[in-house]
Predict the structure.
Amino acid sequence: MNLASLNGEGGSSSQLLFANFNQDTTSLAVGTKSGYKFFSLSSVDKLEQIYECTDTEDVCIVERLFSSSLVAIVSLKAPRKLKVCHFKKGTEICNYSYSNTILAVKLNRQRLIVCLEESLYIHNIRDMKVLHTIRETPPNPTGLCALSINNDNCYLAYPGSAAIGEVQVFDTINLRAANMIPAHDSPLASLAFDSSGSKLATASEKGTVIRVFSIPEGQKLFEFRRGVKRCVSICSLAFSMDGMFLSASSNTETVHIFKLETQKEKPQEEPTTWTGYFGKVLMASTSYLPSQVTEMFNQGRAFATVRLPFSGHRNICALATIQKIPRLLVAAADGYLYMYNLDPQEGGECTLMKQHKLDGSVESANEILEPSPHDRPLVSQTYSPPAAKVSYTPSSPTRHAYPEDQGAVGGIDPDDDLNIGTLRMDEDNETPPLILKSE
């Protein structure tokens, strides 16, 4: 959620410029006018700060790679420059400059994607080399794109048209186009992959219908109706990690949660009421109705809903399991993170459990609304203050020979002493995401 281009959108939290969840929704990144922060999402009761950096001002993009030390940063003071840092060590790994403003950055364990208005740069995250550039994309002023977090299905999705809702799917491992999906009649507003990279959710600027497609085939798997009364601006789409639920937030006060189950999985029950029989007859007659009406009957409705205490604010939603309970999380431009309980069996109206200020401060009047069983919170690490930032001017790029007006310029700091053991994918000693070599 980038608020840098939206004047006044910060509301009561005018310092807020950016907020986003990491790839597995275990932490929250917040960019502000004074720097950036990371918060742990291991507890409902407390928004525990993991790290704070105050040596970079006006942070409009901050993306963390899972639970690792790797972070990608863009500042309003240098909107064409991407910095990749080791935040626990307080050092800069590399930086790149691009020909235009950076609108979005996406990370997974294989690739780093930089989205400009009319081009996309694909970096190998292990050495930050530019592997491929997708040039002359349709105008994409919001930087809309999505990157799968799955190593085997490492796909990138982005708008294929500025006039209609075409989705271009690109294979970032084999560096080739995989498919073009005609998803909507109106231009795209939101895209999201599930954790397996085999499903892609889409929404258009009209905002009434949300579709889910198989990847890379592009077959329509599900179609959900968010509403019929009014067109809305979809702010975000997010799958649960198990791929069973899909949340959709907008500029209205309602967040919809859909359950991804096929008709075969639903129990077939004979109607016991007059309205039930009428509904069965009506559904049987849809083959004789106009296609638009038939589609409306076949579209799924929300399994659960959330009623936010505001409307009109930009926001980003996520589905996570915190302390063994499914939760819906909403980080909003009003400066708050809202946490709701989701009943995975019954659905219905979700219960607000807690709201936290995104600056990490505590409000004494903000109590848990309803008791729930909690596990012992995870113990967070204590980090020493960041070391003095490595300051350098990249020499003439030899590893990345891209002219300034045509591509990315920059590379790894040759004086950086990072090695294979200092940067981990997460806190469980996984394989490090970067293999840095000094030249």
In short: DSSP finds two helices and 30 strands in the chain. The first strand starts at residue 16 and ends at 21. The two ends are 37 Å apart (CA to CA). The CA atoms of residues 292 and 394 lie 57 Å apart.
